[in-house]
Amino acid sequence: MAMIKNQNIIDHLRRQPFLPFEIRTSDGRVYAVDHPEFLAITHQGNVIHYVTDDDRLITIAVSQIVSLETRNSPQAA
């Protein structure tokens, strides 16, 4: 299993234009990142902070992230 590095997360956050993505963790949880401001990486780079829609703050160890997946965006009608 490939290990996700903090640079992979930074690359997703800085992508222009930004594309929403999902973070999947080793325990099966999925976190939807719909905007770059929903996520912050610590200076050490080993932890990220995710803000939920209801303003809860979730701390995730980067070592527990198993994949980053670009989300499907709706097609224009």
Question: How does CATH name the architecture?
Answer: Roll
Rg, Cα atoms, Å? 12 Å
CATH topology: SH3 type barrels
H and E string: HEEEEEE
The count of β-strands is: 6
Overall residue-averaged pLDDT value = 89
Strand content: 35-45%
Class by SSE composition: mainly beta
CATH class descriptor: Mainly Beta
Low-confidence stretches: none
Strand order of the largest sheet: 2-1-6
Helix fraction, binned, reads 10-25%
Biggest sheet, in brief? 3 strands, antiparallel
Spatial gap, N to C terminus = 38 Å
What is the number of independent domains? Answer: 1
Globular, elongated, flat, extended or rod-shaped: what is the shape?
A: globular
Number of helices: 1
